[in-house]
# Entry
Amino acid sequence: MPFYDLHVHTTLSIGENSVEEVVDMAGRLGLTGLGVVRYYTGRIEKIPEIKGTDIVSAVMIKPDNKEDLDATAKKIRNKVELLMVHGGNYDVNRAACENSMIDILCHPELGRRDSGLDHICVKAAQENDVAIEINFREILESYKRQRVYIISSMMKNIKLCRKYNANVITTSGAITKWGMRGGRELAAITHVLGLDLGDAISSLSMLPIELVKKNREKLANRRWEGVKVVD
Amino acid sequence: MAEPRFLPPSLRSHKRYIVFEIISDEPVVYNDLVNTIWNSTLNFLGELETSNVMLWSIQNLYDEKSQRGIIKCRHDFVENMRVILSLIQTVGETKVIIKVLGVTGTIKSARNKYLLSTDLRNFTEEKR
# Structure
């Protein structure tokens, strides 16, 4: 089964390893696709072309407020295959969920004691097709009580997503190649946190594949709203 | 001294064998690995749940050359064990990733599917 990990950092952002090293590790772990994330700082770093793994050009924006998020999203939406928002601030989380140009809201519970999302956000995320991320690095790099808080927040978010049929995407969020994991292992984490096993596996295979395909078609002007190609 | 008899199969708990491979820069020693797995299990599940897992590692099926091994657990804890193995970052001083190759119901199928190409020490092939 093809697995996509859509959130991996390299030396192009805050990661420690180069794109080549990360792609090599993805091959060893059996990942089909990899989302190489860069932060938007006025310009977008170019990803070197490497054969063997499907590399998705992903950009993460770190807005301060709703206006900033809307303006930045509008500016770069047509330049990247995947647009992610750095979550953590409730206002930003909610603005991201209400913006249909955003693909993934990353770690909404980052740096918070609560889960960072409520029923209004998740309803909006479902309506606007924004996926909520379950970030494995948050669990991996926390210990004891902190890990308990994070797991608890993620469980709450997953429960809300199940209730309102919002999309959940599981990623490793790795900043080194040793933080990466296989697709089935990441799916097991989401399953243990409360998502059905089928949906958990889909959050790493079917959902990311469809998301990337849809965005690539939009970028190539091969997709129009309301028009469907019949084989 | 008398010992309790084996339970009939219907009363034994169902088990699964998880075949894993370690990705690391340096070879990993079996004893360190088992200690790390136990610590990770106890941290993640706690003492009460760990006692339900029926965790068992099989020493003579761990191959230090290919870094592949098998652990046994109860069938309803397989997903938990996947998480526990993926939460392991280091064994001793070595950075590792533990990749699950597959889950089987018997040692025989685990050996045939995932370990047959490896050099199995202290293991004699069954003769039919």
In short: The CA atoms of residues 21 and 68 of chain B lie 4 Å apart. Chain B has three helices and five strands. Chain B touches chain A through 14 residues (CB under 8 Å). Chain B has one domain: 15-114.
